[in-house]
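User: Could you go from structure to sequence for me? I need the amino acid at each position, not a summary. Structure tokens:
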């Protein structure tokens, strides 16, 4: 998740940019004048090799109308990086191909967060509901009629300034809505929601400014480690779509130092990252989460993140009493694994996110005979795991991807095509505006032989239509690059040969990968850059999500100003705009 939302708050605190704080090194990288590292779980394996700001003459528009990205940049999410040919203003026009806007919903009720939200679907009483949320900001919509969406419930902490330590009418102190999977559990005869509780990534204790990051600000690190709160996950039974219908079944800490993970004290500080992003669980026996179980899981260069997450497997046969089965990580992720960490070319760059951001990507559930899982681990690349015995997860193979610093180098793996083609689609996503970082390719990786994964191609780069008046999306202002193809929790079965990515200022892009050797962009919708109520600091974070109802052939596009419902008979099939034929119960594969 991006830190741009904190721009306004940080502007007064950050008095100098990276360009004035970095001292050029002999090799074109940089080193700070002195080190302030005192915490044993802050990596100090390699010499400070933080990138210098890119030379403005080394990137930008080329004579053929293409954009040349900088080869290497430091973390710098808080500043513009203009170049000759970039639009003066954000683009308020929209562009569309092979798609139709069935409905549009704009404003705060449909924008819980300007930078990122999660979505889930549930069906109660013949009605279909969508959840859209990010921590304290949550919405429940009745989307049964796509053209007449209504807000059923709104959760917020606006009245207490967003302070998660304070309770109000929506939340108890310390509570919020974390990334969730919601699946039908046959044992309980009800939906069960597993909700992640993790480190907050938008923080005031540390910034990406070299003078205030984790390497130079021991007091900030100390304060961050001392913050109370649950690190783990909660399990709820859902008897209806509203929060009053949630029944808490279990509160589970992933902090390995706790005596009993089901009886921890969230009022005290807990170690590790907690459960990251959407847990992988389809309502059966086994669940897989991304987590750093304690503070020794520290092998990441990212300046404001203290933990490098691996993976855990859990027995969920009794949702009220989850049981830990196994914990897995790559060598180099933990304090003391210096030799392995030093082999990574990112060691010392004070920039790269290294470790999991999302749980394992699994083409077929273990309960249905699935064996392999795929791990996207930022600067650690791709790992293939054998999870046929969830109590003994094993490394099958590993693939290093080309460095793409800065930005997130590995976040998402789409496995929807794996069973048919043997290919997975691996991508990171941009963190800066104005393309001030290497482009984030969506790699096509052949894993027919799980012991020997190999890159065999990349999806084509989206380009604007001729009517746009600019030649490359980098000129449009804002961030440009892939986010994710939604989640495995989408209702219905993912259409073979179709991949839809949120692409920030390039809107939502649908790729035809039915012929993997010739992937094409088959449809797109690029909305306006912002709405009438979008704060100016969020203009650059445009389309950041797509969530497809495969059973109704409707694509919901999540932006910084609202939600769009899209159809595309050519790509998705005939849309169903009213009550679905059958309720969503469990994820399909």
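Assistant: Here is the amino acid at each position, in order:
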């Amino acid at each position: 998740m991006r830190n741009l939302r904190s721009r306004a708050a940080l502007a007064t605190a950050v008095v100098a940019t990276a360009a004035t704080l970095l001292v050029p090194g002999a090799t074109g990288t940089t080193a700070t004048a002195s080190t302030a590292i005192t915490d044993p779980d802050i990596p100090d394996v390699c010499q400070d090799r933080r990138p210098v700001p890119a030379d403005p003459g080394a990137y930008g528009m080329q004579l053929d109308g293409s954009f040349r990205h900088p080869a290497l940049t430091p973390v710098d999410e808080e500043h513009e990086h203009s170049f000759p040919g970039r639009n003066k203003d954000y683009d308020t026009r929209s562009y569309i191909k092979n798609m139709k806007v069935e409905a549009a919903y704009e404003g705060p009720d449909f924008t819980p967060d300007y930078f990122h939200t999660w979505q889930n679907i549930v069906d109660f009483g013949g009605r279909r509901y969508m959840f859209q949320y990010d921590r304290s900001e949550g919405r429940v919509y009745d989307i049964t009629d796509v053209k007449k969406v209504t807000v059923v419930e709104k959760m917020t902490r606006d009245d207490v300034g967003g302070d998660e330590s304070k309770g109000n009418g929506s939340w108890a102190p310390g509570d919020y809505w974390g990334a969730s999977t919601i699946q039908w559990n046959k044992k309980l005869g009800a939906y069960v929601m597993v909700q992640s509780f993790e480190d907050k990534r938008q923080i005031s204790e540390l910034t990406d400014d070299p003078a205030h990051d984790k390497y130079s600000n021991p007091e900030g690190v100390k304060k961050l480690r001392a913050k109370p709160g649950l690190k783990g996950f909660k399990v709820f039974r859902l008897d209806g779509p509203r929060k009053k219908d949630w029944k808490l079944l279990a509160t589970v800490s992933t902090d390995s130092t706790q005596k009993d993970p089901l009886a921890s004290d969230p009022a005290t500080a807990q170690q590790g990252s907690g459960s990251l992003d959407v847990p992988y669980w389809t309502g059966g026996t086994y669940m897989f989460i991304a987590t750093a179980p304690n503070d020794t899981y520290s092998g990441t260069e990212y300046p404001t993140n203290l933990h490098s997450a691996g993976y855990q497997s859990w027995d969920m046969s009794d949702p009220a009493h989850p049981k830990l089965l196994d914990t897995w990580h790559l060598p180099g992720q933990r304090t003391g694994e210096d030799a392995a960490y030093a082999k990574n070319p990112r060691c010392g760059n004070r920039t790269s996110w290294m470790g999991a951001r999302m749980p394992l990507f699994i083409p077929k559930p273990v309960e249905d005979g699935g064996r392999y899982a795929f791990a996207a681990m930022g600067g650690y690349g791709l790992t293939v795991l054998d999870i046929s015995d969830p109590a003994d997860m094993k490394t099958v193979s590993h693939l290093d991807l080309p460095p793409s610093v800065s930005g997130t180098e590995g976040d998402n793996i789409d496995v929807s095509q794996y069973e048919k083609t043997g290919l997975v689609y691996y991508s990171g996503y941009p963190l800066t505006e104005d393309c001030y970082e290497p482009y984030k390719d969506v790699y096509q990786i052949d894993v027919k032989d799980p012991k020997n994964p190999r890159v065999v191609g990349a999806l084509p780069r989206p380009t604007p239509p001729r009517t746009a008046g600019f030649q490359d999306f980098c000129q449009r202002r804002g961030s440009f690059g892939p986010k994710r193809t939604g989640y495995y929790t989408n209702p219905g079965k993912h259409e073979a040969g179709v991949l839809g990515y949120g692409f920030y200022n390039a809107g939502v892009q649908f790729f035809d990968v039915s012929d993997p050797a010739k992937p094409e962009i088959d449809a797109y919708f690029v909305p306006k850059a912002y709405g009438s109520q979008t704060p100016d600091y969020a203009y650059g974070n445009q389309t950041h999500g797509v969530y497809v109802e495969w059973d109704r052939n409707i694509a919901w596009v999540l932006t910084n100003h609202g939600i769009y419902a899209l159809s595309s008979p050519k790509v998705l099939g005939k849309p169903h705009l009213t009550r679905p034929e059958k309720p969503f119960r469990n994820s399909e594969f």
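One structural detail worth keeping in mind: The two ends are 27 Å apart (CA to CA).
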